[in-house]
């Protein structure tokens, strides 16, 4: 059983992720500025905290954790303080208390700005992609964390298929349950450490795709 902290614990992806993590036998703490919105399951501890809080506040709640997930997002309302600097604060906090494993939910091609204008769905989210660029770039280049960055194509509310394509973008969407499943499975695969994984719906079973990454 791992002790896992989910930052942004009340969102759509977070709810599915937490269900997967609990089904795998983990203990989960999850943060939100509205902790009452966090999914209510055994072994899930809601934490009232937001990304405007200081690094020291995040360091305190990260003590004793094995894995940090960042799945927070402001939906365009607070990109600098939440999606960009908020993410950086959690990375700094993780390093401060010696939590090495850090999983970032990002966005397709977040580290490749030259791609953004080539896809209509990305061009409409330029400000969001800029925020994710800075967060991902800091994680990859300015920390010593054992990171994995998952960069999905557009999220949809469809039923999950359990099948994906990694780093070969053959579709422009992902069902949320598939993204959450990939996030949950990543921590079982040490070969994903230090990797940026672009994903979309595809033909490969998630377990096989992760083994082959």
**Mean of all residue-level pLDDT scores:** 96
Sheet with the most strands: spatial strand order: 3-2-1-4-5-6-10-8-11
Q: What sequence of helices (H) and strands (E) makes up the elements?
A: EHEEHEHEHHEEEEHEEH
- How helix-rich are the residues, as a percent range? 25-40%
Low-confidence stretches: none
CATH topology, anyone?
Answer: Rossmann fold
Tally of individual helices: 7
Describe this structure in words.
- It comes from Ligilactobacillus salivarius.
- Residues 8-189 form the NAD(P)-binding domain.
- This protein is of the alpha/beta class.
- The longest helix has 18 residues, at 79-96.
- The strands form 2 sheets. A 9-stranded mixed sheet has the order 3-2-1-4-5-6-10-8-11, with helices on both faces. The protein has a two-stranded parallel sheet with strand order 7-9.
- The chain has helices spanning 12-23, 55-62, 79-96, 120-123, 126-142, 176-186, 206-211, and strands at 3-7, 27-32, 44-48, 67-70, 101-105, 146-152, 154-156, 163-166, 173-175, 195-201, 204-205.
- Helices cover 36% and strands 24% of the residues.
- The two termini are 25 Å apart.
- The chain has one domain: NAD(P)-binding Rossmann-like Domain (Rossmann fold, 3-Layer(aba) Sandwich), CATH 3.40.50.720.
Quick tags:
213 residues; Rossmann fold; 9-stranded mixed sheet; 7 helices; globular
List the SSEs and their pairings.
Blueprint: E1 3-7, H1 12-23, E2 27-32, E3 44-48, H2 55-62, E4 67-70, H3 79-96, E5 101-105, H4 120-123, H5 126-142, E6 146-152, E7 154-156, E8 163-166, E9 173-175, H6 176-186, E10 195-201, E11 204-205, H7 206-211
Parallel strand pairs: 1-2, 1-4, 2-3, 4-5, 5-6, 6-10, 7-9
Antiparallel strand pairs: 8-10, 8-11
Helix pairs in contact: 1-6, 2-3, 3-5
């Amino acid at each position: 059983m791992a002790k896992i902290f989910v930052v942004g614990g009340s969102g759509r992806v977070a709810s599915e992720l937490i269900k997967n993590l609990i089904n795998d036998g983990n203990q989960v703490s999850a943060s939100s500025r509205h902790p009452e919105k966090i999914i209510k399951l055994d072994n899930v501890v809601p934490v009232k905290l937001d990304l405007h809080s200081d690094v020291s506040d995040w360091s305190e709640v990260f003590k004793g954790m094995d894995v940090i997930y960042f799945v927070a997002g402001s939906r365009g309302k607070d990109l600098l303080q939440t999606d960009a600097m908020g993410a950086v604060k959690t990375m700094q906090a993780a390093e401060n208390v010696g939590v090495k494993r850090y999983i970032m939910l990002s966005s397709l091609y977040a580290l490749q700005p030259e791609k953004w204008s080539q896809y209509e769905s990305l061009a409409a989210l330029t400000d969001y992609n800029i925020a994710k660029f800075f967060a991902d770039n800091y994680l990859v280049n300015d920390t010593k964390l054992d990171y994995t960055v998952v960069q999905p194509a557009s999220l949809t509310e469809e039923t999950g298929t359990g099948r994906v394509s990694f780093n070969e973008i053959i579709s422009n969407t992902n069902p949320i349950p598939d993204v959450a499943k990939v996030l949950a499975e990543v921590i079982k695969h040490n070969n994903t450490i230090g990797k940026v994984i672009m994903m979309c719906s595809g033909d490969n079973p998630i377990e096989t795709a992760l083994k082959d990454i």
